[in-house]
Amino acid sequence: MSWFHARPVARDVWLVAEPGHVNSWLVAGRDRAVLVDSGLGIAPIRPVVAALTDRPIDVLHTHAHFDHVGGDAEFDRVAIHPAGVAELRAGADPAERARYLAYTRRMLAAAGRYRALDHEFFHLLSADSDPRPLPPDVDATWAPGPAPEPDLLTDGDEIDLGGRTLRVLHTPGHTPDSVCFLDEHDGLLLAGDTVNTGPIYAQAPESDLAAFAASTARLAELDVRLVLMAHFGRGVAEGHHVREVADAFARLRAGDAVVRPARDCDDDPVREAVFDACSIYVPADG
């Protein structure tokens, strides 16, 4: 089984999934292509995307977290919001990768039971989402190289791919450097970690709940056909999901949410606000 699963989702747009882990997105125009985030770096991503298009490929980042930038050393050009430059230059803390591996091993230990239940009752798992087992030597080999010195992305920038344009939307909240990319012509929103089906991570020290609510409210005003997301079992959602997420943040801010204890992927205690369309993690002591 390959570490990656790639498939077309829209016109010259491909999901490049590390199933059960993180999604990257390849978007091609007439002249060039961009890879929106470069994944974990556990396995080389460039050969996967190079097999999908013959156009030159650069990397655009939704933010600097380690699970979105791991393949950067394979590319000549990457770009990120200025607020993410320092983290991108610093690289991932090995202890952070170790915590992620511990979380993944807990997930994989549960995956067999989940597959059996899904096969018998629910029929939701697909090649997009069925978790990939870790390579046997991952503890020794997972050490992503440094990213190239990045170009900068600011709100309103337009990325011209030739016959296709992506507009940069600065959407702080998950992190100060979080951005989304909008293909207005085709109605596609590449949402990074700003929009997911949940849990949406708003619990970290760098997260800002008020900014997150404002960013999702901004996205809810867009005319979007498909939302292309980075995590969990559903990487593609209909456009109205952005309004559902914005409504969830507004309700959470207003105190209108069912909140329960949970633990995030670092095994830290958090509170989870649960809604029909998604859930949101907030600090345990907030």
UniProtKB/TrEMBL annotation:
Pfam family, one: Lactamase_B
Superkingdom of source: Bacteria
Domain Metallo-beta-lactamase, chain residue ranges per copy: 21-231
GO MF annotation: an example: hydrolase activity
SUPFAM superfamilies linked to this entry: Metallo-hydrolase/oxidoreductase (SSF56281)
UniProt KW Phosphoprotein keyword: no
Xref: InterPro entries: Metallo-B-lactamas (IPR001279), NDM-1-like (IPR050855), RibonucZ/Hydroxyglut_hydro (IPR036866)
Keywords associated with the record: Hydrolase
Protein name per its UniProtKB record: Glyoxylase-like metal-dependent hydrolase (Beta-lactamase superfamily II)
Organism: Actinomycetospora succinea
Highest classification ranks of the organism: Bacteria, Bacillati, Actinomycetota, Actinomycetes, Pseudonocardiales
